[in-house]
Structures are given as structure tokens and as C-alpha cells.
Records
---
Amino acid sequence: MVASGCFSNAPVLNASSGVGHVINVGGVNSYVTGSPLAVLAILLVSDVYGFKAPLLRKIADKVADNGYYVLVPDFLHGDPYDPKNVSRPTRVWLKDHEPGKSSEEAKSIIEALKRKNVSAVGVAGFCWGAKTVTNLAKTELIQASVLLHPSYIVVNDIRGVNVPIAILGAEHDSLSPPKLVKEFEEVLKAKPQIDSYVKVFPNVSHGWTLRYDPTDPKAAMAAGNAHKIMINWFDKHLKK
């Protein structure tokens, strides 16, 4: 079953958006923003539309303003999902870009950052990117994790998490419906040694933190609240 909500509200991609720039880190081209001298780094793992989405880069810039060196890796390698390409069905695209497949590349990026004196790393994943984050959260490479309206995540993924994790779900979400998010919460409650935070946002749909209309005050406020929670979570667990 294809998760259609992951593919709705396609953004207009813009390679020149954001105040940062693109460099190769650990073998992966990445949008980077913030001071390269920062000792705390954040990876933002995109949805199916990749690292050229202007709102994603805006979020990265916002996180960087809080003292982080932020990277948005191009884990799609120049091949974001294109809803206009009718000759390449969603299922075919997903086969080429299996959720979580980028975990090993993410490890290479994190290792490269730590060789440059980064002392702590947080990772957040939006939709398609959530699987990569849960894979990393099972390792000792990162210190904090956040899932925002995750896709393709099952309870067993959450059972394996061993670093602090925040999960932000949507009231209207067929991919991670509130009932499933509640199951995630119960699993985490059974692991009190792992700090966790779970919230289902009312009156929002899948993708609300990343593919929203910035001219809609309610949509912008809901997204902004989620971004604030994400930043606060990283502050709590990385700025020790």
C-alpha cells in the first residue's frame, strides 16, 4: 500500500533557497547552515521531495539560529519524487528510494562531523526521513532524535530506540494515525530509561510541519509550534 499522504502538496523546489550553501560531507551533498565551528550538529532528513524544498531549508536556518551546525543531506541524490512524472509510478520511485536505506550514508556524515570536533549530534526526520532516524536512534552515534509525522514506522522500530526521542504526530494522518502514535508512546513508557516525548497535534494533517502554506496563519502557527518543540528537545539533550 502506497502512503499517498507522503506525496501530497508538492513544494516548488529551489536549489538557491536558504541562507546556507551546499557542500559534500561524508560523501553526500548537503545543504549546510550555521557556523561550521559549532560543536553541536543537527541532521534534518527530508521527505520524498528532498533537500531543495524551500520550507525545509527555512527550518534548517531556524535551527541553526539556535547555535547548531545544521545539515540537510541529499539522500535522494538528485532524484526527488516528481508527481508530474506519470511514466514513473510512486511504487517504482519508492523501490529506488526505500525508507531507511540512507542510514549508512547518514552514519558516514555523522562520523565525518565527529572527526571535525562535533561533540553531539541530533537527527530529525520528516515523513519518509523518519525511518532513517529510527535506525540511527538504535546506535550510539547520535544523542537525540525527533520524528515529525513519520511514515513507514512500525512499533518494532520504536522498540529498538535507545536515545531520547520526540514523536510529533497529526490528528489526521493515515500513515501514522493517532492510534499508532499512542502505541509508540506506550512502548516508550515501558522504557523509562529513555527520555521521550509524544504529542498528537489537533486539526492538522500529515506533512503539516513541512508542506504548509506560510501565508495561512493557523498553518504557520501549528508548524512553528512543532519546530519549537523540536529545537527545545535538541537543546535539552545536546546542550548539557
Note: The longest helix spans residues 217-238.
---
Amino acid sequence: MKKTLPLIYALFITTLLFSQTPCNNGFAGAYPCNDYDLLANIPVSVLANTQGNPEGSDIWGWTDPTNGKEYAIIAMTNSTAFVDISSPINPIFLGRLDTAAGTSYWRDVKVYNNHAFIVADLVGNHGMQVFDLTRLRNVTSPPVTFTADAHYTEFGSAHNIVINEDTGYAYIVGTSRSGPYAGGPAFIDISNPTNPTNAGGYANDGYSHDAQVVTYNGPDTEHIGKEIYIGSNESEVLILDVTDKNNVVKLSEITYPQIGYTHQGWFTDDQRYFILGDETDEQGYGFNTRTLVFDFNDLDNPILSSTYYGSTPAIDHNGYVLGDKFFIANYRAGLRVLDITNISAATDAMEEIGYFDTHPESNGTAFNGAWSVYPYFSSGNIIISDIERGLFVVRKSGTLNTSTFKTKETITLLPNPAINQTKISSKEGIIQSIKVYNTLGKVVFKSNNINLKSFVLPTKKLTTGLYLVKINNTTIKKLIIK
């Protein structure tokens, strides 16, 4: 008698690794979308250390300067995962760096000089982990467990890390309110990434939840060439001149109506406008996603320029500007893409032009779904970290050259679904190794040194459900056992 696929596995299919699922009629597989295709999805159960109940948090990207390969760096509750996405419809999970101390729902990462810098909140002795990303070039048998290349411990917990790549300074924000900077930013010289050094901090204006720091080249000629810090400080936006770390100058602060929690913001490319998200105003006041635009034409006298309201009541989280677009991780509404070419206008300054919703259950006002987004790969691929569903790789519809990824179609599994066995065949090249993972990321079958163009995989002892089959440590296929 034919077995029925259990509900848990049927549901899991919607969160497991998909590849190149186009956005058709408003959906890419199970995910609502508009003009953005799904290239791949790797779940939390694969990315994270499986101890406890891991979730996803921050995300950033790195491009290898020697070969142009692109990598996703995903912060998890208990670890940081590294994924090769240079073939975006065939990503390779390379391994993870476990937490330096305890678990945290707020683990954040940034990149400078081919190194990742990682902090965690509410973990008293975590400090900052430093990881040399060039080590990812040499991973031959993924996944592996990495160790840090340096561990800076002159602070304990922190909510986020900000880096000015022009100057080689990291700004640790959301440090302990009882620490030396009372929650304000700590300054660290990371010009030598594996030998970070303390450069002081700023404690005069309360807790900095998030920030952006730039070498200023905007319209306010008085401050050109200075290092400018824009802090999202819970109930205000704070602008500091941090050029001289021993003599920080406060330029201005600005509030706005109906403050919930001043969370995070980003400059436009010309450094004229600053786009801000308030994390709890949707819950507190009942309106749809609200995004505020400030005119920073005069850094000493910023003004609120316009307000945008989205199409859903979802909470906005992290947002980043690239050219004439603003990419927001909008929690339960997923990634939202806004056109900001009209940003100087008092009304209709931004317009939604696309989205990819990683949380199809609802667009409600709650803390699930898309945590953050990284839109800065030269390839045009965009990575999203989802709290429950892990890593998503998406791309604007109609822009993927599928011929680049021909190798994905050269390996087949037949039959699939399978009962007693399935034949893995390669049209080009030799099958050297095979690993089979269950939905918890555990290896349930492996075979090395195969050196054949086809291999019969015995499946009789596998329980009913969904599995990932990794061939030659590069290609991943879904296999259903019925």
C-alpha cells in the first residue's frame, strides 16, 4: 500500500532548498512575490548548530576579490553560517563558527578587509569574533566547524557592529547600559583585523541601537571629509562627528511624531537623505509599515522631509539603499523594494515596486519572517535572512542567465519519489561522493570514492519523508521517500 507523506514533511517542503523558482502570477512556489524570483532557500536546521531552538538573525555578504565568488554570512542564534552562493541556484553550505558565549537572538555581523566581525547581544562575555573569510576558498569537504582567528574581549555584549571601511574603524553599538559607554558606541581600530585595538567610545547621549558611519561627502560642505556617525538611539536620530575619537562633537539630534522605537536607518547614495525605520510604531499606533525620510542637507539642522506608509501592517526592520532603490526586510511581509527616485518630494517620495515574501502565513504586525537583507552583490543576487526559514537568495525577475548554471541540470535522481532505491546519474563528469541529509541536517547515508557516472542509492531503510542529497559536495537535490 502506498504511504502518505506525513504533514510535517509536506510543510517542510515549503521551507527547504528550492532553486530557480520564478515569480509567476504572484507566487514563487509557496511564497508571494512581485518581480523577484526565488533562486534558493537553505533552512535554519541546516545552517545552525542544532542545539536548542535556533533561529536566524542578521546577514551580510562578502565577495572574494581574487575570483569574484560571492558568499552569504548568516548570523544564527548559536552560530554564524557561511554559504557559497557564487552559483545562486546551487548554494553550498560551507560550515559555521559557533558562538563565543551562549545563545543570542541578536547576533550581528559586518565585513572589512576580507574578515567577518561578529557580536551578540545579551551575552555578557561574547565580545567580538574575527574570522578570516579567505579560509572559505579552501573548504573541500563541507560543512566544517570553524574557529575564530581572533577574539576581542574588551567589551561583553553588543547589539550590533558598524564599520566604516574607509577608515578601518568598527563602532560597537548597543553595548551594556552599565558599561563604560552606557550603551553608547565603542570605537575599535580594526585596520589590522586580527589585532583589534581599543580607541575609546562615546557615552553622552544614551543607548545607540544601530548606526551608520560614513566618510562624509554630501551637500553640507562644512563637514566634507569628516567621519560622521548617524545613530538610531531608541527615541531620536543622533548625528556625531567622530573624526577625532578623543573629541567627539555632537552636531544635532532629531525626533519625529509618534515615536515607537527608533531602530535603524541608511543614507541615500548622495548622503542628502536618511531613511529611517521605527520598529514598534506599527504595533503602538496601528498604522501600516511606516518609513521616515529626513533631509540632511544641513547636518546641524536636519528636518523630517516625508513619510511613507506601506501596503501591509508588517513591522519594518533593517533597510539598505542601493542607487535608486531601498531594500527593506519587513518581517512578516518579507523583502520590500522601494523606488526612491522621487525622494525629495514632500509626498509620494517612495513607491513599492517589488517584493519577495518569506513569511507566506500572513503580513501581520509581529516579529517573524525577514530579519535583514543584503543587496550589494555585483551579480544582482540579493540575500535575505529569515528568522524561521533561514537563508533566501532572490533576484529581480527576468535577469538570471540560466546558461551560467548548466551544471544544475546534469545530475538526475530517478525515480523520485522513491521507495527502495533511486539511481543518481551524471550526464557530465563523474560522481565522486554522495551524502544524504534528513530534515534536521543529520547525515543518514554517505559514500566516497565512487568514481562512476551513475550510482544506485539504497533507500529502503530510510523513513518516509524529504531528504537532501549532496553530490560531489557541490550539487544538492531533493529526494522524497514514500
Note: The chain is about 5% helix and 45% strand.
